[in-house]
């Protein structure tokens, strides 16, 4: 598969998702970049903005197994990863796998559950394995988490710890649709009732794990020149020298940004990364990794403004 094939595949995926989801083009692009870069995505937005339908449609189009966990305050780690249960008939323990054993996992309202349960995803997101009673069990090579969370200002939420946030490649803000998009949503979905199954909207499967693997292999061949590597390093290091920030981005963020930039270049049909790829992805990659200083919080600074300032300050190669 070539980068031109990757571009064509991405266009077909967008078209199929568009049958069920109105708008959300930027979020679909973020999901595509994360898929081809092997990363996870955190979607933040108010209820009713099609986050769940988007994740379901995305999983169906690319032909991956889909699993969903509704995170609640009483959810336990074993409810996610599974457990060895004693069978009284055979007097043996039987492994019962949890819903995490899938390809694309939708972690719905992940910040509605306590930190102990949130932590059940840490190993899976980093190493694509889970450990049950000392035994390490592998997840699929295409394992991907798409998590949704309510805005942190809402009641009854548990903020995700920094270590878990750092495992997400992107944090994408899902906003309300435009006036024209909202009218299309009302016209289409009002006549379908509460249709949450993508197949009810005619969304077809156009790929599978093998095709996605070939696309990822093609993305890995995209060239990253020294000047762009230096630019990525300068951006990441620049987050650690800002008075408005208490904590900057980790070296892992730089490696993730490089991989994501390769994927974005391939989606555009290029076999080389340009600085605009880095600039376009930097806000979604940095916004959840940076912590405002107490003084900046008191002054009412927004993390988005700080990220934009850093990107504008670091000169891009020509």
Automatic annotation (TrEMBL):
Record's protein name: MoxR-like ATPase
Recorded coiled-coil stretches: none
Residues covered by the AAA+ ATPase domain: 37-230
Listed SMART domains: AAA (SM00382)
Family annotation (InterPro entries): AAA+_ATPase (IPR003593), ATPase_AAA-3 (IPR011703), CbbQ/NirQ/NorQ/GpvN (IPR050764), ChlI/MoxR_AAA_lid (IPR041628), P-loop_NTPase (IPR027417)
UniProt cross-references to SUPFAM superfamilies, sorted A to Z: P-loop containing nucleoside triphosphate hydrolases
